[in-house]
Amino acid sequence: MTTETETSRATTEPKHDEPADDALELSITAAIQARWAHRVDGLIHSHPWTVEATVVGPADADMVIPADDLEAMLHRLVVDWQGRYLTDVDVGNWKGYDALVWDREPTVEEIARRLWSRLDGQLAGLRAIAVVESTEFDRCRTVRLVRR
After folding, report:
1. For residues 100 and 110, what is the distance between their CA atoms, to the nearest angstrom?
2. What predicted TM-score, i.e. pTM, was given to this entire model?
3. In 16-139, where do the E strands start and end?
């Protein structure tokens, strides 16, 4: 015989195949690495970069988006930047890098905004873009643009 406490517990505990809370989301973050240069504060310099995108979907989705598809989208966003330097002033060739001129200085924050604007209309559930500016030494900086 089942007691009242056991019956109550059985009806309130989530089943394993159902999300415990309607407010839950399932997310995936994929990242790619690339190398390009940018001119900030008059200084052209090259970095290894990591570009990440986070996509959300319903908690019960089998898959939010295939990781390979998300990574391919990220690669397509930056392929034209590789071997170039991003700048708002063309100062000619720099160490084999040709200029890719923007209307604003290509800070890491501006790079994140550009990536967001190019990806947002193509990708349902886009929640965040992160740009990691690395050095070959002992530090990195991450700028993250997040939809609230």
Report:
1. 14
2. 0.83
3. 25-40, 43-58, 84-87, 98-101, 126-134
